[in-house]
Amino acid sequence: MKWEKLLNRGRFGDLASKSTNNSSRSEFEVDYDRIIFSSPFRNLQDKTQVFPLPDNAFVHTRLTHSLEVSSVGRSLGKEAGYYLLEKYPKLSEAGISAYEIGAIVAAAALTHDIGNPPFGHAGEEAISDFFRHHESGQIWQNHLREDQWTDLCNFEGNAQGFRMLVSKENGLKLTYVTLAAFTKYPRPSDIPHRDVARKSQKKFGFFINQFADFERLANFLGIEKNSPDCWCRHPLAFLVEAADDICYSIIDLEDGCTTGLVSFEETVELLAPILKDRFDPEKLKGRSMTQNLGALRALAIGQLIEECVVAFITNEEGMLKGIFDKALTDVIPSAKALEKITEVSIRKIYRSQVVLEKEAAGFQVLEGLLAVFSSSIYNKCYRPEQFSGKDKSILRLLPEDFPLNGWGEEVNPYGLIRALVDYISGMTDKYALSLYRRVNGISFPGN
């Protein structure tokens, strides 16, 4: 792969391959601004990161997490950009700057959670389980191809995010390179064999009906395949992943300390190996816990950015050849310290009572919503003799543009059920809970 092609400014959805932007903003700044002002991004303000939103302490939502990941991503991209411009003079000749490379990573990082459903990762499992186990989900299996059914039984927030970013309805028309940097897992869900040694194949990055979209993107940027149905990562995707890894490791720990699940003393003990000689216990005296947490977080993130940039530079040629395929945070000096933080976070934060209760509620709410809407849609399309007044009322709650009209044999049932998953997964936590209560008669509008 060649950087000159990997950083092409072409825009997805535009027939012309050249830039159409004549403003003072770069193409990648335009990407960032379009994302910031989009509805899917705004909805992240009421989607769970880890904790339900408490009344007495600030913890992160998907929105604040995404903004912080984007900030870290910009720093990673700019520092890596200085190295790339020095090594590949043709990039400067093409008008690429280190700032632009930082803007690409920042924009892609801003969207990295945009496809996540309500209630965090539990929401992903709830949607998958609905099709695997619930009778109202399983009824669709005989109407779908095997690869389509695999998509539904393995809901993946990364693939949902790619679907949203290339959707005509959202109208974002991002650059190909931002979309490629977003795609950490450049493969479909249904592949014969997964190479467990490749981080890029751990999950999947697009549903089967976006296969052609990603193939067009890969061809445009010159991204090569490493197997018949899997592509190599765009090298900047490693930086987007690193930005996310850095933020959730450090900031989830900070939230855990803020909410009292991890003691301040243990938090300091976990961060000290990352800070190394920058850590000075004397500077913690005479300040509040919140002030100390903020200072330690900033120092730790700064150190991890430096280490990840070095790892990127060291492995950049391997990325271009498609032979390096690990998370940068797994190959840096602080890797073991991050592993320890993850171990403590799983035990004390992610499996805490408040988080488990939130996840249990998420399973109940999402399964309930999917069951109600799925049954009504199925009755309308396949069991008209059972289509009731209740079903009519339920379907009137769907968005106006939901593709129910004109149903017939020529309509793909996968597209129909995919649209339902789009609707449910795009909800905020509070709206999903409110709608669940209303459709089940637990509360009434206005209550």
Topology:
Blueprint: H1 3-6, H2 27-36, H3 39-42, H4 62-87, H5 89-93, H6 98-110, H7 120-133, H8 135-138, H9 146-153, H10 157-166, H11 176-182, H12 211-221, E1 225-227, E2 230-231, H13 235-258, H14 264-275, H15 289-321, H16 335-350, H17 353-382, H18 389-395, H19 413-425, H20 429-439
Antiparallel strand pairs: 1-2
Helix pairs in contact: 2-6, 4-6, 4-13, 4-15, 6-11, 6-13, 7-17, 11-12, 13-15, 13-16, 14-15, 14-16, 17-18, 17-19, 17-20
CATH fold name of the largest domain = Hypothetical protein af1432
Separation of termini?
58 Å
Strand order of the largest sheet: 1-2
CATH superfamily of the largest domain: Hypothetical protein af1432
Strand content: under 5%
Please give the number of β-strands: 2
Share of residues in helices = 55-70%
Q: Report Rg.
A: 23 Å
Largest sheet entry: 2 strands, antiparallel
How many distinct domains? 3
Low-confidence stretches: none
Silhouette: globular
CATH class of the largest domain: Mainly Alpha
- How many helices does DSSP assign? 20
Just name the CATH architecture of the largest domain: Orthogonal Bundle
- The average pLDDT value, as a whole number, equals 89
Quickly give the structural class.
mainly alpha
Domain HD: 62-249
Pfam families: HD (PF01966), HD_assoc (PF13286)
Protein name: DNTP triphosphohydrolase
Keywords: Hydrolase
